[in-house]
Specification:
alpha+beta, Hypothetical protein af1432, Beta-Lactamase, Heat Shock Protein 90, 3 domains, five-stranded mixed β-sheet
Length: 735
């Protein structure tokens, strides 16, 4: 892997290194077994699919290949079904895109794969036991892939990750704790980001992210998170059965307690537990684990298959080039994407799309209507009769039929509009020739968010351009889905601010804990609802960028991906605020924390020198806090101080001395622009920023106040416009 010697305190690029992974490396024993199956005469696609179903690396590769091919189908999670839909040549193409893992951590990686198999088998049985609340195949996939974050860490830093696992074993704690301590991130978060990048089903992504979390409260308001409970229970049972080794140690939660929350009795758990070892043994045979001299057998099989691979790779390359033909349709998509204003309402985007559709395909009248949300009975439509005659109208949803016909609600098809949406034509003033009017869905993640109605002037175009119609409408559906999500994001932000403003209590018994609990539920809902459409937008933009030769258009597509990433970062900020890491307090010198906070501020603000004037009382004792959290909080305050000066780096005064009641008082003041009283009152609310809109997300002081409070401290702010700001932080003194 070419890894440098590991300085635990200096690892800052691990998250970036993991993000850059396009795939994981396969075990040589699995690679040898796979190639042997390919070389056997008469090997079918189903035989290869059986191997794929047992290996987390191959399974993740299949989902990623499906995404690259534009075949996203919502939350379908059956690995066997996914692989079974591909030819043996297509499955082999995925295999060829993978690297083969070296010898440096082979035994440890094999044990991790065994653990993943155990969790997958157990999760499938648990899903079966709780009936129709969680899909069995989806649960199996989630269990198999739940530790892809660990596989990725082992990929990019094998020696360092081995040291992390060794420390977890020595300290008898979960590996997440050691990862957070040394890397600032854990394998669950890294796994979630890889899952989003590679297009894993949303429920599988949720399980990867939350399988170490106690989410019983969240499940009540977000049932789709139940799959994470299933995987968490399966993980505990796999550890109890000692099948494989995930590298985590310490005390695991009681399977019986988690089982009760899922409605599973003790006898059912014992039955699942008793069958687990046998099921995993069969999977290991299918996968070829444990064969002697796997590297040598892999090289032998690869040599025999070399000629066959060359021919098949040429075929696959030709098919890939075919997917990138017909540049004019891609130009249509690019022009449409470039014309989108970030402030546009969904119906404005729909109107622009209808105009472009009519012009590009030379159709008659066009209507794009959007599916209403929830129980709403009103919907909006953009109608284009000609380039100079366009309008937006409100329509009544039909009482006796679906707004989006069932025939096109979850799959692309072009149908006769007159047979399905008579209710729409009754409300429009535009006359359509119903014999020549067609209806097609605008799909986002396998579900229609709207539909396009268009009058055909050249009937032959339907058969000629049907595949292109599918591509173009999918792009429009993804954008419209994202635009709707963007509208709801602001509503979530307002709810967060409202919940936080009530932290002190409202006189009716609703206190801080209730408010933060509501905040956590909102964050979980926002993350679930926003992340999936963001992944679609980002993936489609990347697909277009790969085929683009025009530098300017490529730049614009890159902007789309970057903006999607910014939205993902906002979601992460929400979760970090609502559910921060619990403090791990210890005795710490105040001067040391201040020095570290100044260094961190210089990095964040890209300032070579912070003009900080520090005064710490000589007899000042130590504080008892989580130093990492407090350093981050103080740095957030200092960033605000630095940014309060326009076009200069002004002085920041920091003093620390004894406070009242056995506390330490830290005062941070600047002579910058200052704030009005109303601004001061809102300064620690999430998403509030005194800067120009779009400059900052407004989470710095909110996060600072949050973690200082968790560390049994307090944060106060005083300020006057034009005279600067003073932030007072009270911290508990070490005993």
């Amino acid at each position: 892997m070419g890894e440098k010697s590991f300085d635990i305190a200096a690892v800052g690029g691990v998250e970036l290194a993991v993000r850059r992974l396009d795939c994981l490396s396969i075990l040589p024993s699995v690679a040898a077994h796979f190639l042997s199956a390919v070389l056997r005469s008469g090997t079918s696609g189903s035989a290869l699919a059986e191997i794929v179903e047992c290996d987390p690396v191959l399974a993740a590769g299949m989902f990623s290949a499906r995404r690259r091919g534009g075949g996203l189908r919502g939350n379908t999670g059956s690995i066997r079904q996914l692989a079974g839909e591909l030819s043996p040549e297509e499955i082999c193409a995925v295999f060829l895109s993978l690297k083969v893992f070296g010898d440096e951590a082979g035994p440890a990686r094999e044990q991790l794969v065994r653990h993943s198999l155990a969790v997958a088998c157990c999760a499938a049985e648990i899903a079966q036991a709780i009936s129709d609340r969680v899909d069995r195949q989806l649960a199996y996939a989630a269990g198999l892939l739940h530790d892809i974050g660990k596989l990725a860490l082992q990929e990019v830093m094998p020696k360092s990750f081995a040291r992390i696992l060794e420390e977890a074993k020595t300290e008898q704690v979960g590996s997440c704790i050691v990862e957070q301590m040394h890397l600032g991130v854990d394998h669950a978060i890294l796994g979630k980001r890889l899952a989003q990048k590679w297009g894993l089903p949303p429920d599988v992504t949720t399980a990867i992210w939350l399988h170490h979390s106690d989410i019983e409260v969240t499940v009540e308001s977000m049932p789709e998170a139940r799959i994470a409970q299933v995987v968490r229970l399966a993980d505990c049972m796999a550890h109890r059965a000692v099948i494989g080794d995930s590298g985590s140690h310490g005390t695991y939660d009681s399977p019986e307690r988690i089982g009760r929350s899922l409605g599973i009795g003790g006898e059912q758990l014992e039955s699942i537990f008793g069958n687990l070892a046998g099921q995993v043994k069969e999977k290991e045979k299918t996968l070829g684990l444990g064969i002697p001299e796997p590297q040598a057998k892999y090289r032998e099989a690869l040599g025999k298959a070399a000629a066959q691979w060359g021919a098949e790779r040429s075929t696959l390359s030709a098919e890939n080039r075919k997917l990138r033909t017909d540049s004019s349709h891609f130009d249509f998509i690019k022009d449409f994407l470039q014309g989108i204003d970030s402030n546009s309402e969904p119906v404005d985007i729909a109107e622009d799309f209808a105009v472009r559709w009519q012009k590009f395909y030379q159709t008659g009248a066009v209507c794009v209507y959007l599916k209403p949300r929830g129980d709403l009975r009103r919907l909006r439509a953009a109608v284009v009769e000609s380039l100079s005659e366009r309008t937006v109208v409100d329509l009544d949803a039909p009482e006796d039929s679906a707004v989006i016909p069932k025939a096109i609600s979850s799959d692309f098809a072009i149908v006769n509009a007159g047979e399905h949406i008579g209710w729409l034509f009754e409300q429009l003033d535009v006359e359509f020739d119903l014999s020549q009017t067609r209806l097609a869905p605008l799909l986002c993640e396998g579900q229609a968010v709207g539909a396009i109605v268009f009058e055909v002037r050249y009937p032959g175009d339907i058969d000629l351009f049907e595949d292109h119609f599918k591509t173009v409408t999918s792009a429009a559906g993804a954008v419209l889905g994202m635009a709707s999500i963007s509208q709801r994001r602001q509503a979530y932000a307002e709810l967060f601010a409202r919940a936080v403003s009530n932290q002190g209590g409202d006189g009716n018994g609703v206190g801080r804990d209730d408010s933060l609990s509501a905040l956590a539920e909102l964050a979980a809902g926002a993350a679930h609802e926003l992340n999936n459409p963001l992944s679609v937008i980002s993936g489609r933009a990347q697909l277009l960028a790969d085929a683009e030769t025009d530098p300017e258009k490529e730049r614009l597509l890159k902007q789309i991906r970057e903006n999607s990433g910014e939205l993902t970062a906002i979601i992460d900020d929400l979760m970090a605020f609502a559910r921060p890491q619990q403090p791990r307090p210890g005795k710490t010198r105040v001067r040391q924390m201040l020095d570290e906070a100044i260094q961190l501020t210089a990095q964040k603000t890209k300032t070579e020198h912070i003009n900080a004037q520090i005064e710490v009382a000589e007899d000042l004792g130590e504080v008892f806090v989580d130093s990492g959290q407090i350093v981050s909080a103080i740095s957030n305050v200092l960033c605000n101080c630095v940014e309060s000066y326009e076009n200069q780096v002004g002085p920041v005064k920091i003093s620390a001395g004894a406070g009242v009641g056995g506390s330490v008082k830290v005062e941070i003041s600047d002579l910058g622009c200052g704030m009005e009283a109303q601004t001061v009152r809102k300064a620690t609310a999430p998403f509030f920023s005194g800067k120009t809109a779009g400059r900052k997300r407004g989470m710095g002081l909110a996060h600072a106040a949050r973690v200082i409070g968790l560390n049994k401290g307090r944060l106060g702010i005083t300020s006057e416009p034009g005279r600067g700001t003073k932030v007072t932080i009270m911290l508990p003194m070490g005993v």
